[in-house]
Specification:
11 helices, Isopropylmalate Dehydrogenase, alpha/beta, 8-stranded mixed sheet, 17% strand, 4-stranded parallel sheet
């Protein structure tokens, strides 16, 4: 096979993902796309949204010998009961989603593909409590303990040091080694896929990087880690106050802003770029991307959802 396929796990069945997938497939894409999904669900959504396209059912064991293209939707069928379709997101979909991911992981481990996109998944309904998010779930399945969540935009990207973690646990979870690992992953990614070393800014944890407490994490953890990395040749500076780092003049300087917790950096980025960003997991033996939005079940079937994040996800993989 000249171009290994991009594997797409549809994820939560009661989401807007298939709608945006249909819209995305109108783009010219070199790599063949293989969708892992229920064919009954696919046809139901196609009929409802009045989308017409040929469907080709395939088996993952045939990926090595098949000559695939995107003239039809290539689908690996995962059984799913139609009676659960067009309902609220619930744990009824858990086994279906797990089977979809299991097939995708098997394909990658067999070397039949090295690019994965997954549609949004409800963490509350799907994940066990030992996983904070899909980044950790996927990393666990590939025995990867060193990973990072990069919300990528060509003009400005962000990386939360901690991911889907309650705020009360953040201060106890950050340490110098964690900062060093994230920076190295980000720097390697930019050099490998974009051809340059990024300019990285790091936020503080406390407002204005100040604290009246005896232990100020900005001084005892974040600042020493930045000094160490700077001495190692990384283009990094900080800590900066999170309330000003996203100002226009700073956005012109930095490629990546690392924050101490999820909403500290994702809130500003989504305000600036809305859906024009993609979620890339760094530290895996393959490229994994997910559109930077949730299931959005309230919009299911309305045909009004923006496909921009999924388009950007596929086009990024298509050229790398």
């Amino acid at each position: 096979m000249k171009n290994k396929p991009i594997i797409v796990v549809a994820g939560e069945p009661n989401s807007v993902f298939l709608e945006i997938f249909f819209k995305t497939m109108k783009k010219k894409i070199k790599h063949p796309i293989v969708l892992i999904c229920s064919i009954k669900l696919l046809k139901m959504q196609m009929n409802y949204l009045k989308y017409k396209e040929k469907i080709r059912i395939i088996k993952y064991t045939d990926l090595k010998i098949l000559n695939l293209n995107n003239k039809s939707i290539n689908i690996i069928d995962i059984k799913y009961s139609q009676k659960y379709a067009f309902q609220k997101v619930s744990k009824k979909s858990k086994n279906y989603i797990k089977k979809s991911f299991d097939i995708a992981f098997k394909i990658i481990k067999l070397g039949l593909a090295n690019k994965l996109i997954n549609g949004p998944v409800s963490k509350k309904s799907f994940l066990d409590k030992k996983f904070l998010g899909m980044t950790e779930y996927i990393s666990h399945n590939f025995s990867s303990t060193n990973n990072a969540m990069l919300i990528f935009n060509k003009d400005l990207s962000v990386c939360p040091l901690t991911t889907h973690m309650p705020i009360k646990l953040v201060s106890k979870s950050i340490n110098q080694n964690l900062i060093k690992k994230k920076v190295k992953l980000i720097d390697n990614f930019y050099k490998k896929y974009l051809g340059y070393g990024p300019q990285i800014a790091v936020t503080g944890l406390n407002p204005h990087c100040e604290s009246n407490e005896n232990n100020n994490e900005d001084l005892t953890i974040i600042k020493p880690a930045i000094s160490y990395l700077k001495n190692k040749g990384y283009n990094i500076s900080g800590p900066y106050s999170a309330d000003t780092i996203f100002l226009k003049k700073n956005r012109k300087i930095y490629d990546v802003i690392i924050g101490m917790y999820h909403d500290q950096v994702l809130g500003p980025l989504k305000t600036l770029y809305e859906y024009n960003a993609i979620n890339i997991t760094l530290g895996l033996p393959f490229i994994r991307i997910s559109p930077d939005h949730g299931p959005n079940e309230e919009m299911l079937g309305k045909n009004l959802s923006s496909p921009l994040s999924l388009i950007n996800s596929i086009l990024f993989l298509d050229k790398n």
